[in-house]
Specification:
- The protein is globular.
- Helix 3 (36-46) runs parallel beside helix 4 (71-79), helix 3 packs across helix 8 (207-214) and helix 5 runs parallel beside helix 6.
- It has a 5-stranded parallel β-sheet with strand order 1-2-3-5-4, sandwiched between helices.
- The two termini are 32 Å apart.
- It is 31% helix and 12% strand.
- It is built from 8 helices and 5 strands; from the N terminus they run αααβααβαβαβαβ.
């Protein structure tokens, strides 16, 4: 698919119109809307990636591990010109490239096929190690996970490895809407800090707080940002 999108949308409030174009029984609306603010801040102010450089080795990488709720992700990609917004109206249909889980072979800008919860953070660790092996130290790797994914052992192994390995290029965004079964004493951020990460917890709807947390310096350590979203608004 070629990138033939119209002029990218610059206004966050227009994302709600784009979200409304996607309908169906399996759209996982709450899972998507809980990520909308954080995704917008990332793509609008932080990530060094655009429709024109999605194959450039020096680009930033964004991995959506929370792949079972991709509506907000698709809305942001359309808003930023990765594909035409007209594709949103066919979301989840047989012939649409926009499936209920993202497919990196079909969605421009998608780095991984996701939806199998618990795999995104280990894949992000692998991405950073691959970049290191190629001598590419400028690209940053971001991965968005849900708080319930932290119940999966694969994520704990990735957290335990990345801190001592000093994977400074690695950034994890955790959307915390109190959906985890187990949780963590002291809060989610403390789990990352115990493994040597730099970590903060912020209001997941506060764009200024999100941006500040996303851009905090963390030399020699991976970075985790826990975006707290109240369940009633998720």
């Amino acid at each position: 698919m070629t990138n033939t999108a119209e002029t990218p949308v610059r206004d966050f409030h227009d994302l709600h119109r784009l979200m409304a174009l996607m309908t169906g029984d399996e759209k996982h609306g709450p899972a998507a809307t809980s990520t909308l603010d954080a995704l917008w801040v990332l793509y609008d102010q932080v990530l060094r990636v655009s429709p024109g450089n999605i194959h450039t080795p020096d680009r930033d990488r964004f991995l959506l591990s929370k792949g079972h709720g991709p509506m907000a992700y698709y809305a942001v990609l359309a808003a930023k010109g990765f594909f035409p917004e007209e594709l949103l109206t066919d979301f989840g249909s047989y012939d649409s490239p926009l499936g209920h889980h993202p497919d990196r072979m079909l969605v421009p800008g998608a780095e991984i096929g996701s939806g199998s919860l618990g795999h995104g953070l280990p894949l992000a660790v692998g991405n950073v190690l691959g970049l290191r092996a190629q001598g590419l130290t400028r690209p940053r790797v971001w991965v968005l996970i849900g708080d319930a994914e932290l119940d999966e052992g694969s994520n704990h192994e990735a957290i335990a490895y990345a801190g001592p390995a000093g994977l400074e290029q690695l950034h994890t965004l955790v959307i915390d809407n109190s959906s985890a079964t187990l949780g963590w004493p002291g809060g989610i951020a403390s789990r990352f800090e115990a493994a040597g990460w730099s970590a903060d917890t912020v209001d997941g709807r506060d764009h200024e707080a999100l941006h500040a947390a996303f851009t905090t310096a963390h030399p020699g350590r991976p970075r985790a940002v826990v975006a707290r979203v109240e369940p009633k608004n998720a």
